[in-house]
């Protein structure tokens, strides 16, 4: 795991997007196609805004997988991650991606997990663009996360800290409106990615960042597993990095 600290979240987003774009271009240089994973949430705003403008990427050769989605959430809902990715990513690209495998979570969620499993199981993921939650989660794998399952996608329960984060970011009017379940990519599936670009700005993420970077690897801090990935880089601003141990060399 590597750490990159910028002064502002805008700069952190630019760096993450630039480095992620280079990884996609490198994958396309070595193969006829590339596969990426995309996250959502307020932490990804700046990164995605830069990534869609990156030069040299033939998006028509890139397949995208969706990281997580609320159970029962229609794509028309303001908080839908499918809506988010369509509007903030796909609609902003110079050309459509080769394919975008959204999570359709309105119906039978376990059947949807099986459908996605069959799509992703035989693929090598070149770059995973992810974030870290205020409770240290990866995707919607809240603590204590399942580090052992080989299933690529899971139906998970959302803890209160996770649900309060979604409320605090303005996606829902009340806590009762935040769904209690979601479909999430599993921790082991994320860790199978060749490279991980993890963008985590803002002071409200500082405690989770400290626990993930300076603490032990534990399911109680799901993002701590990134310590075991040699090609994972966490992009921070000065606020999210504020509690990191100054003596540590990143």
What key phrases describe this protein's structure?
globular, 250 residues, Rossmann fold, 3-stranded antiparallel β-sheet
Topology:
Layout: E1 2-5, H1 9-30, E2 34-38, H2 45-51, E3 62-66, E4 68-70, H3 81-88, E5 99-101, H4 109-120, E6 127-130, E7 153-157, H5 160-168, E8 181-185, H6 187-191, E9 195-200, H7 206-214, E10 232-236
Parallel strand pairs: 1-10, 2-3, 2-6, 3-5, 6-9, 9-10
Antiparallel strand pairs: 4-8, 7-8
In the CATH hierarchy, what is the class? Alpha Beta
How many domains? The number is 1
Shape: globular
Strand order of the largest sheet: 1-10-9-6-2-3-5
Q: Whole-number radius of gyration?
A: 17 Å
| Architecture per CATH nomenclature, i.e. the level-2 architecture | 3-Layer(aba) Sandwich
Structural class assignment: alpha/beta
**Quick check: average pLDDT?**
95
**CATH fold-level label:** Rossmann fold
* H/E element order: EHEHEEHEHEEHEHEHE
Count of DSSP H/I helices:
7
Sequence stretches where pLDDT stays below 50 over 5 or more residues? none
Estimate what percentage of residues fall within beta strands: 15-25%
Major β-sheet annotation: 7 strands, parallel
Helix content: 25-40%
Number of strands: 10
- Please report the distance between the alpha carbons of the first and last residues: 8 Å
């Amino acid at each position: 795991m590597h750490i990159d600290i910028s002064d502002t979240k805008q700069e952190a987003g630019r760096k993450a997007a630039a480095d992620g774009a280079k990884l996609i271009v490198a994958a396309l240089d070595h193969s006829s196609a590339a596969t990426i994973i995309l996250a959502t949430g307020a932490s990804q705003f700046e990164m995605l805004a830069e990534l869609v403008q990156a030069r040299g990427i033939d998006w028509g050769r890139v397949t995208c997988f969706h990281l997580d989605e609320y159970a029962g959430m229609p794509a028309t809902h303001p908080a839908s991650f499918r809506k988010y990715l369509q509007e903030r990513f796909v609609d902003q690209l110079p050309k459509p991606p080769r394919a975008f495998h959204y999570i359709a979570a309105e119906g039978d969620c376990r059947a949807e997990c099986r459908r996605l499993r069959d799509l992703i199981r035989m693929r090598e993921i070149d770059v995973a663009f992810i974030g870290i939650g205020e409770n240290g989660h990866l995707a919607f794998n809240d603590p204590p996360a399942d580090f052992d399952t080989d299933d690529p996608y899971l139906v998970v329960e959302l803890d209160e800290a996770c649900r309060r984060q979604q409320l605090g970011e303005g996606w829902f009017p009340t806590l009762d409106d935040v769904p209690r379940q979601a479909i999430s990519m599993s921790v082991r599936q994320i860790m199978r990615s060749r490279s991980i670009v993890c963008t985590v700005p803002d002071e409200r993420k500082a405690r989770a960042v400290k626990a993930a970077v300076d603490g032990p690897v534990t399911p109680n801090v799901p993002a701590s597993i990134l310590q075991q990935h040699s090609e994972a880089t966490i992009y921070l601003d000065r606020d999210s990095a504020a509690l990191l141990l100054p003596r540590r060399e990143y």
